[in-house]
Amino acid sequence: AFLDSDDEFAPRKLELQIDLLRQRPDLGFVYSDYSIIDDDGRPLGTAFTTKFPIARTLPCQQVASTAFACTASLFDSLIRGYFVSTITGIVRRDILGTSIRFSETHAYAEEWLFFLEIARATQAGFVDQPLSIHHYTPGSLARSDKRRNLLGMRALFQEMRRRFADASRPQHLAMRSNLARVCRQLGQDAASERPMQAFAFALEALTQEPTLAAFRECA
Question: Model pTM?
């Protein structure tokens, strides 16, 4: 299990997830919902409700009152959008083996790659309760530099396309769409001060997702 230094496990977090692993030995990975707390200590709801409603659309089988086993590949959903936070995941040690590790070359959202590798290696389940608490922290990497974070996401999506080259066509289209979206945002942000850079990002977006909207932006 993983815990960032500025976050918390809620009471019974490990207990409830391990209960699910014991009831379903075929599952190698279990995650959960989590609560979000702002800079002033005010609750902002839970991630599945406010940020990632996709998490509750996965085909699944109920195992206990709030415990579920995914009946389809988690990889297929996770490649389209990120909804598994580091602090919620618990993985069987034998699934990690000696090869699945956090990337040392990506400084932003590297856990997305990590959990994608796990999702390809095993079946997953989740507890639909906020079992962890994520605190917004002033000056944190995730909030201090928008452009750096967007560039980090662009590098991450490029790495996804290389690492998961054997993915299905719909999965590749999802990866390309994510990359195009980030490139469009980078292009828009650079338009007023760095027009040539903005054009390069818009062109990259167009090559990844050749839509009419992307063409107009590039033009």
Answer: 0.89
